[in-house]
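Case 231 in the screening queue. Each case pairs one protein sequence with one candidate compound; here the compound is adenosine-5'-triphosphate. For every case the pipeline is the same: read the inputs, emit a complex structure as tokens, and attach any notable structural observations.

Predict complex for case 231.
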Amino acid sequence: MEIHINGLTKIFSPNIQALSDIYLDISEGEFVYLIGTTGSGKTTLMRMLTREVLPTRGQVSLDGIDLRRLSSSSLPYFRRDIGVVFQDYKLLPNLTAWENVAFVLEVCGVPRAEARERTDDVIDKVGLWNRRGLMPDQLSGGEQQRVAIARAIVNAPRLFLADEPTGNLDVHTAEYVMKLLLSIHAAGTTVIVATHDQHLVDTYRQRVVELHMGRLVRDEREGRYSISGDL
Ligand SMILES: Nc1ncnc2c1ncn2[C@@H]1O[C@H](COP(=O)(O)OP(=O)(O)OP(=O)(O)O)[C@@H](O)[C@H]1O
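Case 231 output:
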């Protein structure tokens, strides 16, 4: 999915300007880290890509569609193309890990046999096959996070947004999750990862966009890391 952001500004209240005049283009299939200190506007920017937050000024277009022009009836269809893992995983507490993922396909009307197969595949991919029958409160934080990732990718989204996907994870699990995100990228999905984890950014190098107090202060495209390990 291709993203064009033009003069984007978000003012929550007279003294809270979360984003100031952002210009940013992201091509189909790119991987972008969104970095910046706490409160710099990363989450606000991502929530504007899903149209949860509307601009005060400026424009966000995905694949040439100006999000302001989307009708509320077309919003759910538009969002099916976007996989999201935000800090609150919002897993359904009364469904197992497997059911949390399958539920997405059920809502989208995918035939049952196909839904079962796709859910099995993705649960296996995130390394939760042996945990698939457990309820969210029986899973560790890192396992819940991987259920959230599985749920976000089961519908083969064209854009994947992750807010601090490795926050609170040990080094080993963080690495596992990161490789998972790189494999989603390798399959052609546009990926945006908001993170404070400088180690991650230095290890798996990709385009880096930095915000500071709502302004875009850095955009570096050099030194890509690919899933095959080439730098
Ligand atoms: N719904 C809201 N109402 C009012 N202010 C908000 C709202 N959402 C965000 N803000 C403010 O906008 C600014 C940017 O917040 P945002 O969550 O986008 O930053 P962030 O870079 O994601 O921070 P963190 O790294 O801590 O998650 C902050 O000052 C925040 O308090």
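Case 231 observations:
- The chain is about 30% helix and 25% strand.
- Strands lie at 3-13, 16-26, 31-35, 57-62, 65-66, 82-85, 159-163, 190-194, 207-212, 215-220.
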